[in-house]
Amino acid sequence: MAQAFRLPMGGRIDRSKPIRFTFDGRMIDGFTGDTVASALLANGVHLVGRSFKYHRPRGILSHGSDEPSALLSVDRGPGRVDPNNRASVVEARDGLKIVSQNRWPSLAFDVGAVNDLLSPVFVAGFYYKTFMWPRSFWDKVYEPVIRAAAGLGVAPQVADPDRYANRHAHCDVLVVGAGPAGLAAALAAAETGKRVIVADEQAEPGGALLHQPDALIDGRGAEAWRAAAIGELDARENVVLLPRTTVFGYYNHNHVAMVERVADHRSDAPAGTPRERLWQVRAAEVVLATGSHERPLVFADNDRPGVMLAESVRVFINRYGVAPGRRTVFATSGASAYVAAADAKAAGIDVALVDIREERECGPEAAWLRAAGVDVLTGHTIVGTQGRKRVEGLVVAPLSNGGVGARRVIACDCVGMSGGWTPAVHLFSQSRGKLAFDAALDAFVPGVSAQAERSAGAASGIYDLAACLDSGFTAGTRAAGSSARRTFAASETRIGFKPARALPTDANPAKVRAFVDFQNDVTAKDLKLAMREGFESIEHVKRYTTTGMATDQGKTSNMNALGIVAEGLGRPLPSVGTTTFRPPYTPVTFGALVGPARHALFDPIRTTPIHEWAAEHGATFENVALWRRAWYFPRPGEDRQTAVARECRAVREGVGVFDGSTLGKIEVVGPDAAEFMNRLYVNAWIKLGVGRCRYGLMLKEDGYILDDGVVARLADDRFHVTTTTGRAPRVLAHMEDYLQTEWPELDVFLTSTTEQWAVIAVQGPKARETIAGLVAGIDLSNEAFPHMSVREGHICGAPCRLFRVSFTGDLGYEINVPSDYGRAVWEAVVEAGAPFGITPYGTETMHVLRAEKGYIIVGQETDGTVTPDDVGLAGMIARAKPDFVGKRSLARPDLLAAGRKQLVGLATSDPSLVLDEGAQIVADPNQPIPMTMLGHVTSSYFSPSCGRSIAMALVADGRALTGRTLHVTTPDGFTAVTVREPVFFDPDGSRVNA
Amino acid sequence: MLLIDCPFCGKRPEVEFHCGGEAHIARPADPAQVDDAIWAEHLFVRKNPRGLHAERWRHLHGCGQWFNALRDTYTDRFVETYKAGEQPKHPLTETRA
């Protein structure tokens, strides 16, 4: 019968809006406002999963985000399958397909349950002790098998089709939690006019008020008070109230991360609605009103489906109008469960209550509940449960004279247990605040704050409703910088409990399965075993037994585990310590963390104005810094070697065209521009004529090469500086650093112009003829426009800075045009060069051509420990200059010492063998290991122009070894090489002046 | 993530900034005149205090300006920020035990 356990009235569900979803294929009816847990319970479903290790039948323990057992897979449609959702958190809606986990072939009959019969074997540390030999089985056999048998849900296989948003926000006061304390804090802060954000993890704000319809606040019903408070907050422009928003991380300086669930609960969400939104809030002050978690009692078979937390039974009755059972026994060590029992009785449920406290230890709640007609049994322990997939009876026994008396069974179909309360100090602990142990509360409470933060209500150990409201209001006013105070009148809260560790039992302790951590299947016996084996630190016990290490982070289990360990060691609880709480408070989807940063938005990709042309003409691309550069242009049937060889020949014999737009460009302008350049580069700049270019070399202050590039002087006060592709930002930062902090007196402006210019390199003997017909206003003759000079004019009607420079060793030009003209000019050059067989070439050919000439690439021939002299560029240094960045360091003893690695060329004895870049070099391959390594190969290619392989290397005292034979590692051993000059082609350099 | 008070722009998120190491290390006016030991000290030797530390910061993804900051290396809290060439108001001697 559908919803047989739905109460005829009551609850916050909307009975006019029925919904329907499936659970393992079975139709489940519920109402809008239900969670999956409440709808399942309304239909009498308690068995919802199998436990992690022993595959024991498990039910719903809790009503909130602390649920450790009821983990389900939620299917919201194609591609939208999400495992390990807590049934008590997922809002029920039409069309969901809910599937149980960790069972095969079915939930009711699970083969893995054999693990439970073998449980005497599967004790804590079982895996460490058992699966040790042989070593080769670790990865291939043990881990896959164990992982398949143990575990949670199945990870989705397809890409997440949902969209995730993110948002940054600032506020004066962030209130975490909208229960009574949080609402009072929010009202107080809001009244000051400060900007307030209130975040609450539930679908409705109100916290505990949502299931206390009989409570009174300031003479009004709790619901009326709650509605008025939310109405006031909603009406204020300075307040943002966010339901379904979990604060999961508390980081430095009140940087708080939270996730808002936007769409999952809606079956009518418009297309494009983000599924979740990640908020990053920077709050001046934070109020933590995160409430508390109820502790289970630790007794034999306390994990039977139908055994729940007492307050959760109350929530299902009052908030969802569901009776979790027809005959419910409450088992408790404190007062709060009496109220749950009374509410259950009032809802028409057959109720009994067992209290482990002696009659004299109980408060007035015992007489109060008896007066309501409920059997109350005090001074009894719980020794077990009956039933298998659903609890059928609670086995209790009287405690007398330190012993356990005769057992009796109380028949029931639901147990509500309460072992007391634990303040939810997770976020406080994440904020690095120091916890303090309060013996009267048997709990850790917030002690010394580390950040601008304060806790209120149950999160700070205050359980009385009026006191919660008071503390919340005070926290809110203080956080907002006000000293206003208000006291609230509220109906009495029944509080107080006696700490209960593992309950006394008459059974053989070695056989009792009393669960502490329900999600990781850790029993009290496991904890005791760990202590017997010598684990004393709670951090070690935790790791050995895995207690508290599941995705619920031990919300329901940590205090029980601590208490049992403290008792076992005979030490006071605070000396055992508490474990560190870390983000996230509850599991967060990867999607929320990633947000929009995926696919094209994962990392920026920079492309040049000529990129599309290159793509259309079959280029393959490589990543250089964030740039995507054309690597080579294979024709049909060509591999990389043949394509690069063809491109190289074209440049040497005719003309090639290359996209150099990624070169970094910095405009250095101002009356002191030349002086600035003089101080920053090793070269001399004062006398460089307007219209001339110079190869510039830049050092760090420690004397090592930072960057290089051609610099053109366009006017007395204007330089066009180029940098390597990858280092442009670093060079500009380096320049700005010196300009701003060392030489603020220099009148110079620095502007990055990398993106403003497209650079088209036209290289080869036919370069001049190629561009001659396109250029206006510039005399291209060798006399008027020699190598290493620059002219301004027009090309194809576009303004241009035309450089006569070469990184190939052949006659060449680099055409700089405003980026918008880049592609048009490129296409015009390609057309004009057609008679000469103009060939587009990519970075690979560029590398080969420059290596043939012995030109270095900073970052390839250099590694941050290389001086100008090391790479043979000492001649660039203007030694007459009194100072430049790095000059003093070049006189450091280490940089002058013999034995530094120097740039040389290497010729392999086998001309077809191309060495590996990075390969090590030794003098004698037969020397004993470890060998003395002389250096390494920095660049290595097959050179079509030379008809053989070429390589450059950094070798200790390399220049003195010219002509000597050395040995280089290869995948097959060593190969012999001859040391030579690093210039392999056109050594006298006549071709660039053609 | 913390907010850093750029002396030119005001409070901005940490991700806009770049730290440039210890502040108030003057480059010798004439490096050629200092001996190797002093030069090595200038290049390589830095304080590493537990507590207040004067640092150079640049508002890289903002105004681009370098400035100085006093930061507590223990709490990661910025005590004050000030322009290059200025001295902090807060005494630098305060360090933690």
From TrEMBL, chain A:
It holds the Pfam family GCV_T. Belongs to the GcvT family. Residues 172-449 form the FAD/NAD(P)-binding domain. GO terms for biological process: tetrahydrofolate metabolic process. It comes from the Bacteria. Residues 901-986 form the Aminomethyltransferase C-terminal domain. The lineage of its organism: Bacteria, Pseudomonadati, Pseudomonadota, Alphaproteobacteria, Hyphomicrobiales. Residues 512-593 form the SoxA A3 domain. Residues 610-880 form the GCVT N-terminal domain. Keywords: Oxidoreductase. InterPro entries: 2Fe-2S-bd_N, BFD-like_2Fe2S-bd_dom_sf, FAD/NAD-bd_sf, FAD/NAD-binding_dom, GcvT/YgfZ/DmdA, GcvT/YgfZ_C, GcvT_C, GCVT_N. The keyword NAD does not apply. This is Sarcosine oxidase subunit alpha.
Automatic annotation (TrEMBL), chain B:
InterPro entries: SoxD, SoxD_sf. GO terms for molecular function: sarcosine oxidase activity. It comes from the Bacteria. GO terms for biological process: tetrahydrofolate metabolic process. Pfam families: SoxD. This is Sarcosine oxidase subunit delta.
